[in-house]
Design goal:
This protein has 390 residues and is α/β, with parallel strands linked by helices. It folds into two domains: 4-11 and 257-387, Aspartate Aminotransferase, domain 1 (Alpha-Beta Complex); 16-253, Aspartate Aminotransferase, domain 2, CATH 3.40.640.10. Helix content is 40%, strand content 13%. It is built from twelve helices and twelve strands. The protein has helices at residues 16-22, 38-58, 71-85, 101-112, 130-136, 159-168, 188-191, 240-278, 305-314, 334-338, 359-377, 381-387; strands at 4-5, 65-68, 92-96, 116-120, 141-145, 172-176, 195-199, 210-214, 282-284, 295-300, 317-318, 348-352. Helix 2 (38-58) runs parallel beside helix 8, helix 3 packs parallel to helix 4 (101-112) and helix 9 packs across helix 11. The radius of gyration is 22 Å and the shape is globular.
């Protein structure tokens, strides 16, 4: 059976070049980067090369890049760090209703500490209105956190406009860019962000490593306590092989990102158009013009999403009903609920493509998918009633 992987928003395959770059630091160059001997300095030098590679991808300074264990830690460090560093007694944070749980659950935890949080709503397009963000600003607002690309819809938020608003009101601005780094061009100066979170395994790097961009001069309280690693921002012995892998993945994205985006976008459009043409009662959720190249979220009326995933997986095709970290939840997607699509939440499927997908993958999917949908719909008494009219 030929297997097709269309769940790249959950994780991506490690690029061969990344694996090759990491291998020496798992074997002969195994030193602790804090050691002053030859082994340690080899490891330290590799980390600094990776810092430069990632900074280049973000159009940032290497000194503004702090390595972490992944996107979740970076999000926590940004939100908690800004709030803890703020001198004001009363503190207010602004975010949106469609953020990843790494931000939303951190915001909820801050509320338990007495921090007030405003959750700005978004429209049916899945894009936040910058004016709504500006209206939410209060005298004690210390941070605005708006994701760059939504993990379920792929929609891109108007960060430049929000960044200008944040600067005008002297408020720190953070973005969770886990789903956009490596997929679209990123320039932290142009976006106007003070903090940016990312994760290696979303751009063909290894799992368990990420980074937080911290603009020079940003007051940030450390999330963890220990040694003086990462310029006192993040203590703990560095994951040298993982950091090297992230650096190499960033280098590949810098070199091939534009071509990758064009190819992935073309395959995504081919899949999307093929589904809409061959399967009735389907629709794309979210804005189709402002999104990352590889993501589409499609609603299939009269099917149940989990059943669809199982049926497709049995035929060799992997896709998703939403965020991988929410898999198994009995609650409908908070993202689709937030944009007024609660009714479609249990029948929507996310397809996310990456660098290693091919035209043959799309052809195989378009051959199998309509039959699966028809089989599942044949079990629905509601569908049977309207089937004769289609």
């Amino acid at each position: 059976m030929r297997r097709v992987y269309l769940d790249n928003n959950a994780t991506t395959a490690v690029a061969p070049e990344v694996f090759e770059a990491m291998t020496p630091y798992l074997l002969e160059d195994f030193g602790n980067a804090s050691s002053i001997h030859w082994y340690g300095q080899r490891a330290k030098a590799a980390i600094e090369v990776s810092r430069e590679q990632l900074a280049r991808l973000l159009s940032a300074r290497p000194s503004e890049v702090v390595f972490t264990s992944g996107g979740t830690e970076s999000d926590n460090a940004a939100l908690v760090g800004i709030v803890e560093a703020a001198r004001s007694e009363k503190k207010h944070v602004i975010t949106t209703t469609i953020e990843h749980n790494a931000v939303l659950h951190t915001a909820k935890a801050l509320e338990k500490r007495g921090v007030r949080v405003t959750y700005v709503s978004v429209g049916a397009s899945g894009i936040v209105n910058p004016k709504d963000v500006e209206k939410a600003i209060e005298p004690d607002t210390v941070l605005i956190s708006v994701m760059h690309s939504n993990n379920e819809l792929g929609t891109l938020q108007p960060l430049e406009e929000i960044g200008r608003i944040a600067r005008e009101h002297d408020v720190y601005f953070h973005t969770d860019a886990v789903q956009s780094v490596g997929k679209v061009p990123i320039n932290v100066e142009k976006l106007g962000v003070d903090l940016l979170s990312l994760s290696a395994h979303k751009l063909h790097g290894p799992k368990g490593v990420g980074a937080l961009y911290i603009r020079r001069g940003t007051a940030l309280h450390p999330l963890l306590y220990g040694g003086h690693h990462e310029r006192d921002h993040r203590p703990g012995t560095e994951n040298v092989p993982g950091i090297v892998g992230l650096g190499k993945a960033a280098e590949l994205a810098s070199e091939h990102g534009t071509n990758d985006a064009l190819q992935i976008g073309a395959l995504r459009n081919r899949l999307e158009e093929g589904i809409l043409k061959s399967v009735p009662l389907t629709s794309v959720i979210g804005d189709r013009s402002r999104r990352v190249p590889g993501t589409t979220n499609i609603s299939f009326e009269y099917i149940e999403g989990e059943g669809f995933l199982i049926a497709m997986d049995l035929r060799g095709i992997a896709c998703s009903t939403g965020a991988a970290c929410s898999s198994g939840s009995l609650e409908p997607s908070h993202v689709l609920t937030a944009i007024g699509r609660r009714e479609q939440a249990r029948s929507s499927i996310r397809f996310s493509l990456g660098r290693f997908n091919t035209a043959e993958d799309i052809d195989v999917t378009l051959e199998i998918l309509p039959r699966v949908v028809e089989q599942l719909r044949s079990l629905s008494p509601h569908y049977k009633k309207i089937a004769v009219t289609i």
